[in-house]
Structures are given as C-alpha cells and as structure tokens.
Amino acid sequence: MNVEVNNTKLNTWIKEVSDLCQPDSVYVCNGSKDEYDQMIKTLLDSGIAMPLDKRPNSYLFRSDPSDVARVEDRTYISTTSQDEAGPTNNWMAPNELKAIMKDLYKGCMKGRTLYVIPFSMGPIGSPISKIGVEISDSPYVVINMHMMTRVSDRVLELLGTDGDFIPCLHSIGAPLAEGQEDSKWPCAPIDKKYISHFPEENLIWSYGSGYGGNALLGKKCLALRIASAMARREGWMAEHMLILRLTNPEGKQYHIAAAFPSACGKTNLAMMQPSIPGWKCECVGDDIAWMKIGPDGRLYAINPEAGFFGVAPGTSYETNPMAMDSIRENALFTNCALTDSNEVWWEGMDGDPPAHAIDWKGNDWTPASSTDAAHPNARFTARASQCPVICEDWEKPEGVPIDIFIFGGRRSTVVPLVQEAFNWDHGVFLGSTAASETTAANIGSVGNLRRDPFAMTPFCGYNMGDYFKHWLDMGDKLGDKAPRMFYVNWFRKSEDGKFLWPGFSDNSRVLKWMCERVDGKVETQETPIGLLPKEGDLDVDGLEVSKEDFQELFKIDTDAWKTEIPDIEKHFSKFGDRLPERLKKQLDEFRKRLD
Ligand code: GTP
Ligand code: SPV
Ligand code: MN
C-alpha cells in the first residue's frame, strides 16, 4: 500500500477485500493531477486509451460490446424482506446474494491493482455531502471517478480514525493468470454481472461490468439507490433530476429540478441556452439532485456530482453547445467513433459524417454502413467546472431553492407538450404514473413504453409504493412553500414520425410559461389531464411550427387517455397496500374527469 490509512473501518475493509480478491498490489488514490496523468499513461501504454489530436488531454475508450450500458436485469436491491425492495426491484436475500458474489470476488483481482478511491458526493465537508470509498480494479474507473466525484486525500483526513463512509466494492471480474495478456476492456459475461445494493447497511457490491453507472459507484448506486433509502429514513429526497437556474429579463431567478428517464433530455435541458431574448439559463447539475427542507421551509437542492457522464449521440453545437464546449479538452469519450484525423464522432454531431471512421467496435465504418458509428449509449465524461454556464452557486453547500418540479418522458403519442398539476397530490400522481419509451442507457429493448415513476424505476433503493408516500409526506411538510409541478413531453411525433416540437433551446419557451404561472401572470385552461397553457400564452415569437403541428402538440385525445387507465391500474396494483390512498383517489378522480 502506497500510504498509511488511519481509519479503522477502512483499514479493516481494505484488508478483507484484499484477502478475498487477491490483487497484486493496493494503491490508495489522492485525486491529484499527477495520479490522473499516471493512470492515463498506464492506459495509453496498454493501448486502452486512444489520444485525440484535436482535444487536448482527451482520450477515447472502446468498451466490450457486451458492456455498453447499465444492466437493470442484473441490478439488485437486497433487503432482509423482499417487500422492502418492492415490486420494481430485483431482489435476493442478502445472505444468498453475498454468498454468490463472494464466490465471484474470490481471486477476481489477480494480476491487477486494487485502487482505493476515497470520494465525496457533494462538496467536501458540506453537511449534506456523503463520503464513499470505492475499491475498484479498473484504472478507467479511477479516472472517471476523478471527474465525476470529488476524489481527494482530504476525504481521508475528514474521515479521521473513526469516521463513517459508504463502502462501494467494484471489480470488473476478470482476473489475469500469470503471463496472460489482458484484453482491451476486460469484464465478466452478462450472467456473472451483479450490481448489488444493501440499503440496510449502506453497502454496494458491483461485479463484472466496467461501464458507467455499473462501475462508477458514486453515481446511480450511491447517490440514487442508497441515498434514496437514506433520504426516506432521514426526511430528504434523492432524485434523478437535473437542476438549473433560469433568470428572467428583469433579473428574477427561478430554480428548476426536472426528472426525465435516462437519455430523455436532462443534460440538454440543464445546459440549455434559451432561444427567447433576455432569459438566461445556468447549470447546477445534469443528473442527480439531493434536496432538503431549509430553515425557511423551502426545498433546497444540491448536485452531489462533480462532472457529467453525458450521452454523446445527438450532442452538437446545434442542440447542446454548452456540452460541446465542456468537452473541448480534458474529456473522456467511451464508445464514440474515431475519424481518420483522430477526432471523435457520433451520430448527430455537427457537419457531415466523416467519409471513413473506425466505429465503436473498432471496425471500418463509412456513411454507407448499415450500423451506427458510435454506440447509441456512447458517453463523454467531463468536469462540471468546464461547463461555460455552470452556475456560480453550483457548489454552495446549502444548495439552491427549488421553485418548479418537472416530470416527463419520451412519448411519441398521447402526452401534450406541457401541463401543470392541479395541486401537489395531482403532481405526485403525474410523477408516479410517468411513462417513457425505453432507451439505450440500459441493456435491453429500446422504444418500449414503460411506467417509469419520477424517472426512478431503475434507481429507487426501496419499495416504490413507500417512495410515493414519501413524496406525499414531503409535500405535506413543504405546504405552501412546495415547488409547483409540471409534466412535459418534448418527444411527441407527427404521423410521419417527425418530432413536432423543435426542443432544445426552444424548451425555454415552456420554462418561461412555467415561471409566469409561478408568478401568477397567466391563467390556464383546465382539461381532464391537467392545466394547459391558454392559447397565446406560450411565447412562440420567431418559432417555426405550423398551426397543425402546434395543435397536435397540445391535442388531448380523451379516448387515447382512457386506454391509459387500465395500464395505470395495473401499474398501481403492483404496490398492493403500499400504494397510498391519496393516489388511488387521484386515479378515481382522473377516471371521472375523462368520462
Ligand atoms: P442520462 O444521462 O442517461 O440520464 O440522459 P439525459 O436525461 O441527460 O438525456 P440527454 O440530455 O443526454 O439526452 C438524450 C438524447 O435525447 C440525446 O440524443 C439528445 O440529443 C436528445 N434530446 C434531448 N433533449 C431533446 C429535445 O428537447 N428534443 C429532442 N428531439 N431530443 C432531445
Ligand atoms: C443513466 O442511465 O441515467 C445515466 C448513465 O445517467 S449511467 O451513469 O450509466 O447510469
Ligand atoms: Mn441519468
């Protein structure tokens, strides 16, 4: 071990894990630039990292084709009783799951280095922050954790001899025999991958994958699955939400937190540059929000992360210029294509596609190829501090006060561009019944409509019925200081399959309407599903959307909504007694309004 660790729990844990996993060496990370450079050098020497000519200090990685996204089927919430994990989570009893995983962990780090990565989710030392320590045998994980979290020896100082932390054990599950040549992206086969959470003891065990949320354990595993369970016990919220600050032309600030499922527009909205004059948008966070009620009774949000792990395809100067500017240097790219001029490329990037490239699998690719050059879940990693519109208060320990909650999803039909909830309970109903077409962020089928309440289906660390109740309880506590609630759908399509709404910077028009609602400047039109903008209230100045498309965007097809009812009933029935009465009442009222 390169340094002495004084924390008793950490020392014991490192020893236990080393004995079990049998790494060749143990290295304790300090988060320094030297350390980062050293890791990069190792990755370059072994041909795993590919340098990019046009982006200083930036590298491309190609994962194994089997290891390209989160694996919800292999993700477990392991509580003593299955009821605690609830109907939306895979479950196995802790003893059983631990026994299986211990077998897999046995000798799994042979031929590799065990990295100890002390990190803070949230600013180091802030009362809302949580300390985690990830043990991983992947140098790729180390450099990504450097950017996505606060890795520092100050974390170890803060821990002292007896401080507590959340242990996050990770192995790619690919031991090396003596003399065996390593593969470029070692990992375990799908049926050996386990992403396991033990919320009763704040513990994470991940095995077999080196990709994204499966391996960067501060993100979905700690900051959502474990944190959501802690938040419920302690009376706060951990949500799959972006956080942004919108400033109107008069200088009034509004803080918005929005929950959209994976690959449904959080990073884009978080950094959106308004197309309407005089409005300003700044990014506080693009994926996760931790929220607590402040001394003034309002809800305050912090971004526990320190970087972005963003979807590359579709990102361009046209759609998300601030993300493009965030990744000009010091960025990591995974599963993007590589052009002949040593530049990354992905579908939807500005300009013409390259005449020739190497695709994410390492094969020749031309625009005539029938496959994608970049994997649909190809990602960039960059520090949040590199975003030109990062909000000056993004690291404020007390967070920013939330005025507006937005829920949403990807729905090519039925759901209008925007609606407001009648009240908090109705908002919780909208959040709890949110549905979205599945995306490539998870390994599985893409484009299937599924209920994804509050965009938390893959991330809620306890029974989702209790989670709904927690939302209702938070509303009761917040009373008239509660954020207003809205539901949006940027993804409605015309019959010929085109998006009806231009989206991206024009989403500012929808946010403006929400702010005007908060300020009581505009009235609404009451419909069975919620409150819609009155004609003329949505700012469409300079917008090129045909009258027909506009009508289609806001169309409420009562028959189509009626067909949602049995599906919502089925969805709700899964929660049995745990479904709050207040949501049953909401469903009854909805049914009546549709009649
Ligand atoms: P995760 O990181 O997986 O949680 O995803 P995310 O919610 O941050 O999604 P992101 O903003 O990365 O967007 C995913 C995809 O949707 C990208 O290809 C975007 O270009 C596309 N997208 C985002 N916003 C819009 C929009 O307003 N309209 C349309 N048509 N596409 C959008
Ligand atoms: C998501 O899938 O919601 C992500 C990417 O943000 S990952 O980090 O892989 O979870
Ligand atoms: Mn996400």
Describe this structure in words.
The protein has 595 residues and is of the alpha+beta class. It has three domains: 8-30 and 62-234, 3-Layer(aba) Sandwich (Phosphoenolpyruvate Carboxykinase, domain 1); 238-303 and 394-594, Phosphoenolpyruvate Carboxykinase, domain 3 (Alpha-Beta Complex), CATH 3.90.228; 309-386, Phosphoenolpyruvate Carboxykinase, domain 2 (Beta Complex). It contains 16 helices and 31 strands. The strands form seven sheets. Strands 1, 4, 5, 6, 7, 8, 9 and 10 form an eight-stranded mixed beta sheet that branches. Strands 14-12-13-25-29-26 form a six-stranded mixed beta sheet, with helices on both faces. A hairpin with a 5-residue loop joins strand 12 and strand 13 (253-259). Helix 2 packs antiparallel against helix 5 (139-148). Sulfopyruvate binds at residues 70, 212-213, 219-220, 262, 287, 309, 441.
